[in-house]
Design brief:
Mean pLDDT: 88
CATH class: Mainly Alpha
Distance between the termini: 43 Å
Number of domains: 1
Strand order of the largest sheet: 1-2
Helix content: over 70%
CATH superfamily: CDP-alcohol phosphotransferase transmembrane (TM) domain
Shape: flat
Length: 211
């Protein structure tokens, strides 16, 4: 992931305030986790007001997610424990978001959406595991406008509250239930293919040395 995306630039004034307040990166990560779960709880209520509020809390949670890493780099407080705490918070918050949306929409619209929310959460959890634990693939930012703007695939999550505010919560859950598991399957397949190629190259190299 890039550390210089549009969202990272946006939160830098907040990072400076966090430095002055002597907050630690882990404290900010805890706020990220708390607001992420808070957004999920709000989404799960299913009412228009709760969905709108959940969207606001979700955006706040995304900001905290960018602040903790920036704060760790600026104050030289990077650590392995903090890195894994950040990843776990991201995973839990994102999975909870779609489960919460599934619950909320199922209460007011279509009960079957509950299962779509669970499927989206499962797919996202699998993706986090593949990318961050198994490391079967890597994700990098994309430079736009001649490098003046960098965006990460993770930045697309900002569309979640936007779609919710546009009364498209049900569609959001269904799309996530399709894209997340499918992406997890593709990433797993690519990882298996890469590992197989590496194994075959190693075997071939070993055979050459033997001769």
């Amino acid at each position: 992931m890039s550390h210089n995306t549009a969202l990272h630039r946006l939160v830098r004034p907040v990072v400076r305030m966090a430095v002055r307040a002597r907050l630690t990166p882990n404290q900010v990560t805890t706020m990220r986790l708390a607001t992420g779960l808070g957004a999920a709880v709000a989404f799960a209520q299913g009412t228009d007001g709760a969905l709108a509020l959940g969207g606001v809390i979700f955006v706040l949670s995304m900001m905290f997610d960018r602040v903790d890493g920036e704060l760790a780099r600026v104050t030289n407080q990077m650590s392995r424990v903090g890195h894994w705490y950040d990843l776990a918070s991201d995973c839990i918050s994102t999975v909870a978001t779609f489960i919460g949306l599934g619950i909320g929409v199922s209460l007011t619209e279509d009960s079957s959406v509950l299962w779509f929310g669970a499927l989206a959460g499962l797919g996202i959890g699998a993706l986090f595991f593949e990318l961050n634990v198994l490391k079967v693939a890597s994700v990098s930012g994309h430079a736009l406008f001649g490098g003046r703007l960098v965006v990460d695939p993770d930045d697309a999550m900002i569309l979640v509250p936007v779609l919710v505010w546009c009364d498209l919560a049900e569609l959001t859950v269904i799309i996530a239930a399709v894209i997340a598991p499918l992406t997890a399957v593709v990433v797993a397949a690519l990882g298996i293919r890469r590992r197989r190629s590496e194994f075959l190259r190693a075997e071939s190299g070993g055979g050459d040395l033997g001769r």
